[in-house]
User: Which sequence fits this backbone?
């Protein structure tokens, strides 16, 4: 039984509206980034120019390139570190029975509910104490507060669903706990690790508050802060073209990740919430 | 005679390695979360300033509320709880959370229902919907700031073209519309997250229920109201709570899109301004502490209400 | 000398006792089957021997050595799991070699042992494949092969056939039986809920129920002299008929038990008269369900085909030598 025509048309119009609203702002940012000078101040719906001047301005200045590298460094190290810490912890939390396990998992999970602002002043002190102020390591370190609880939670759920007999077979084979993680679980966990790693990367790449607070010089900043702080000499001279070019540059890798790893991202986003 | 061993060597060694494996993670979380939180709360009871954190002295509840008597029975309340700007930011935060989460739930539900249908190009539509979520908050704020620009913005142009407004609106600068602008951006950016969580709920509804309803000739709207909605309610509820907790902490969008205006200042923005811009470190810490308390309370209530199965008990 | 000795072994989770006072001695080279309904504690008992579960009371000895506090891998045992539990990311060779690697054997010796076991089980052709490229039966053999390479004193099987389809189950059962013959010095302990598997494989059967041992004996001992009404009902298929009331009372018992194959059926004369309710024809046998006047429902097994049909009136005669009598507590009354 096929639905009536008007229903199909209505449905596809709805789909069209959803796609349009989702993509239009990004499309418009690209369009703006390709315009220069006076063209910028005329409202266009379709591309008129293909002018790369804004991109040249952003990338030739030097500091923005450095800032992109900062972001790549921070996000990559955050992913590696949080996965390493979380895999071992998830093994303990999912596979070993010990007293207080439930409470511990609850505590770890509750950390993800912490408002970042609530730890900001205390964290600021800790970072100064370790001499990490204005160092990228301050971000690597502080981003653990949101990547770790999430990663631990998802990996714990995933590991719990791996067949218990495989681990018991490894115990019978005489493997130590560390060998079980390294030789048996790690190779089975890569789907979950890709998912959580991606989400941790995106989260770290996008973070703003800590990056704004713990870094003080231009050459140390990460891209979100850099973009937020691009300004002209006055309110009327804000270089919108440059801002849009920078925005497109930092967003493109994420869009690529979303297109390639769509399924993994969706499963990761919903793993924590729905199965909880 | 029988020898009794309560815990075998295997159990003992596993318990030992459990704690060994947990230690680095727990230590990290202690340093980045537990300790800083404790210090924030401590600072809120002191006269700490940005440069003299170490020499902070305990001042009791002065940052929260203090009655200063002027003599002759006259006097005035000072402190966070007597600060009109604070209460304004509390109101802004609540307004933001309620409105944004409501719209996101409705739009998210619609998108989820669409994505739950079988149609050509569904994968691409789903990817497209995900894009606003993946764009950094700061970038979306900037993109929208440009689109909402009072003189050159495309939104004003659109609205004027279809005749909805006569004069351009200064969306982000005018106090009347600043909150609307913030809400627009947030709803645009976060609806995908909501949609995905609800979609996950929808996909757990067994298909044969719909088959049965179809055979019984139940009209689609009633199927949705009587079957779908009750079944996905738990998933929607979880998504709403997650989003609400997130919305109560909102900082980035407001800070970038509408800086320095009473009309949109939220609790997080208020706290950070005091901590780092106004050199009222202790006062800002008190604001942070209150925000933490509100969120903790909601979280605890939620966990109690749903009695989450954290042990993952197997049958 | 016994290889495996259990002395007053018990297991409890908190205050819940799942196994109570288990005393067993398993001889070297013996094939012992633990059988019982689900939840009887048979798998727990096996896992305690393996070392995967703590022993909360009593003592386990293997070759005379106390084992309660010895790590699983150091007990000289190997285990075949219900789901095979092969490492999915490793090849068959790597699966079989993993335990030997953990034991720090040198490469040449590992290869030699794996190849020997592979040859024995005829899985040499699959050594480079991953488990998901194998059929259920092949996986089962790899799981057994992995256990053999460790050269165990005791071989444990935890319901190894329950994931196989019916046809394969019979083949694999025969293979496990012949494995037992080929490894005459290795003690085999096999857990199942299927009494047919137990009867066909075991030298001795241990029947467990509700956390205690109901009876230990050879298959024929259990069949002919069940030590309790539970064992009588559990062993043998179709199930023994249990009759209460006047038939039992006439023999001074609470329950009168007679196996379906120990009743003869005749159209015109016999001890009991009744009406056929249902017949089940299996070709080799026919099961006739009869409602006997004043006695109750009785199941009769007839070899080959039978021309009896529903609603026919029939006469039954139980073989007096094969009657089992039980008292109110299910204990046998010597007859």
Assistant:
């Amino acid at each position: 039984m096929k639905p009536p025509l008007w229903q199909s048309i209505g449905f596809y119009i709805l789909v069209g509206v959803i796609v349009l609203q989702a993509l239009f702002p990004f499309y418009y940012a690209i369009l703006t980034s390709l315009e220069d000078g006076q063209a910028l101040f005329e409202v266009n719906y379709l591309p008129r120019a293909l002018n790369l001047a804004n991109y040249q301005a952003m990338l030739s200045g030097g500091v923005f390139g450095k800032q992109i590298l900062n972001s790549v460094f921070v996000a990559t190290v955050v992913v590696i570190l949080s996965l390493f810490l979380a895999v071992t912890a998830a093994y303990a939390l999912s596979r070993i029975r010990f007293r207080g396990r439930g409470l511990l998992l609850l505590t770890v999970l509750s950390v993800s509910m912490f408002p970042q602002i609530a730890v900001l002043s205390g964290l600021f002190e800790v970072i100064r104490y370790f001499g990490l102020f204005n160092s990228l390591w301050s971000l690597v370190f502080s981003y653990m507060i949101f990547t770790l609880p999430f990663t631990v939670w998802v990996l714990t759920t995933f590991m719990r669903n791996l067949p218990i007999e495989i681990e018991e077979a490894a115990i019978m084979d005489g493997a130590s706990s560390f060998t079980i993680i390294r030789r048996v679980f790690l190779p089975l966990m890569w789907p979950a690790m890709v998912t959580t790693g991606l989400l941790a990367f995106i989260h770290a790449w996008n973070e703003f508050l800590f990056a704004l607070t713990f870094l003080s010089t231009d050459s140390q900043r990460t891209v979100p802060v850099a973009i937020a702080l691009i300004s002209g000499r006055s309110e009327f001279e804000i270089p919108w073209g440059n801002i849009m070019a920078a925005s497109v540059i930092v967003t493109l890798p994420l869009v690529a990740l979303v297109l390639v790893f769509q399924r993994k991202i969706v499963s990761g986003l919903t793993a924590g919430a729905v199965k909880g | 005679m029988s020898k009794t061993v309560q815990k075998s060597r295997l159990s003992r060694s596993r318990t030992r390695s459990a704690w060994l494996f947990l230690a680095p993670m727990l230590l990290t979380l202690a340093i980045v979360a537990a300790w800083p939180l404790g210090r924030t709360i401590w600072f809120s009871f002191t006269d700490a300033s940005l440069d003299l954190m170490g020499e902070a002295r305990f001042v009791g509840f002065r940052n929260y509320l203090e009655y200063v008597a002027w003599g002759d029975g006259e006097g005035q309340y000072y402190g966070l709880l007597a600060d009109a700007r604070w209460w304004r930011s509390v109101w802004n935060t609540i307004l933001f959370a309620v409105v944004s989460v409501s719209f996101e739930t409705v739009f998210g539900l619609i998108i989820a229902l669409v994505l739950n249908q079988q149609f050509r190009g569904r994968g691409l539509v789903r990817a497209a919907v995900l894009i606003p979520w993946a764009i950094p908050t700061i970038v979306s704020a900037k993109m929208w700031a440009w689109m909402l620009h009072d003189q050159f913005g495309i939104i004003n142009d659109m609205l004027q073209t279809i005749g909805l407004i006569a004069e351009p609106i200064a969306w982000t600068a005018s106090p009347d519309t600043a909150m609307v602008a913030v809400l627009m951006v947030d709803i645009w950016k976060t609806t995908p997250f909501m949609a995905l969580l609800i979609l996950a709920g929808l996909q757990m509804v067994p298909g044969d229920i719909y088959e049965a309803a179809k055979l019984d000739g139940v009209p689609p709207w009633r199927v949705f109201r009587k079957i779908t909605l009750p079944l996905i309610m738990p998933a929607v509820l979880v998504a709403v709570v997650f989003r609400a907790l997130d919305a109560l902490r909102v900082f980035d969008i407001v800070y970038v899109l509408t800086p320095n205006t009473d009309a949109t200042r939220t609790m997080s923005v208020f706290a950070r301004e005091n901590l780092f811009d106004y050199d009222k470190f202790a006062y800002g810490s008190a604001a942070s502490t209150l925000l933490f308390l509100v969120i903790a309370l909601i979280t605890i209530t939620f966990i109690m209400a749903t009695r989450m199965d954290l042990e993952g008990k197997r049958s | 000398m016994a290889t495996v000795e259990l002395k007053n072994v018990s297991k409890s989770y908190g205050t819940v006792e799942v196994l109570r006072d288990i005393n067993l001695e398993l001889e070297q080279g013996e094939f012992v089957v633990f059988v019982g309904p689900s939840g009887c504690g048979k798998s727990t008992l096996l896992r305690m021997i393996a070392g995967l579960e703590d022993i909360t009371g009593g003592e386990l000895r293997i070759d005379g050595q106390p084992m309660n506090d010895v790590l699983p891998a150091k007990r000289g045992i190997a285990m075949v799991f219900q789901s095979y539990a092969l490492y999915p990311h490793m090849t068959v060779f790597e699966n079989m070699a993993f335990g030997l690697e953990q034991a720090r054997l040198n490469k040449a010796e590992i290869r030699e042992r794996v190849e020997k076991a592979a040859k024995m089980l005829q899985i040499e052709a699959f050594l480079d494949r991953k488990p998901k490229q194998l059929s259920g039966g092949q996986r089962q053999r790899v799981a057994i092969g992995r256990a053999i390479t460790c050269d165990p004193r005791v071989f444990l099987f935890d319901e190894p056939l329950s994931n196989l389809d019916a046809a394969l189950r019979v083949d694999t059962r025969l293979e496990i039986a012949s494995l037992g013959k080929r490894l005459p010095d290795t003690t085999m302990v096999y857990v199942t809920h299927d009494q047919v598997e137990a009867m066909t494989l075991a030298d001795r059967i241990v029947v467990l129920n509700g956390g205690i041992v109901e009876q230990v004996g050879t298959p024929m001992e259990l069949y002919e002299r069940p030590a309790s009404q539970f064992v009588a009902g559990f062993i043998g298929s179709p199930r023994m008929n249990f009759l209460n009331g006047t038939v039992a009372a006439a023999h001074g018992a609470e329950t009168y038990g007679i196996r379906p194959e120990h009743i003869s059926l005749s159209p015109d004369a016999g001890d009991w008269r009744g009406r056929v309710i249902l017949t089940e024809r299996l070709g080799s046998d026919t099961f006739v369900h009869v409602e006997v006047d004043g006695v109750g429902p009785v199941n009769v097994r007839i070899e080959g085909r039978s021309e009896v049909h529903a609603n026919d009136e029939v006469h039954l005669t139980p073989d007096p030598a094969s009657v089992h009598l039980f008292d109110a507590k299910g204990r046998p009354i010597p007859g």
Remarks:
- The two ends of chain B are 36 Å apart (CA to CA).
- Residues 172 and 284 of chain B are 25 Å apart (CA to CA).
- Confidence is low (pLDDT under 50) at residues 1-5, 309-315 of chain B.
